[in-house]
């Protein structure tokens, strides 16, 4: 199954279509790929990857608040979330672990995101950042393999949609930061 979705942001410094697709799906897993053109430099985008609380939609977190997310963009770093509880007790969840960090070029994590965490799967989430036009192109791919009780083909489009939303948030914040720096 393949689909192309155009996402637009009103007032964006650079109009560019987003690409979102389930690129493969079988009983063994799936792969999705999303990409956007961002009117910001690679350093800004990479720095923001380490600040998911600014661009990740809190509706797609365990606590309901993106402010509880953190990501250390170094090998072994955690994409984790604090889970505030009663009486000041704090739990936590590990969404993924950084397995490759190449500043301003690539960040790769290993982990089963969201409902996949309860399945017997491995997921590899990669953010590739490359110069393009007056900014960068960010390609986010997520490859998942293993046993998924509800079926990989069934959940792949949902995962694709959720990840496309997160990438759009990264684009929005990166462009806001870049515009603020340049006074646009």
From TrEMBL:
CDD domains: SRPBCC
Keywords: Signal
Keyword Cell membrane found: no
Signal peptide per UniProt: 1-20
Keyword Nucleotide-binding: no
Protein name, per record: ATPase
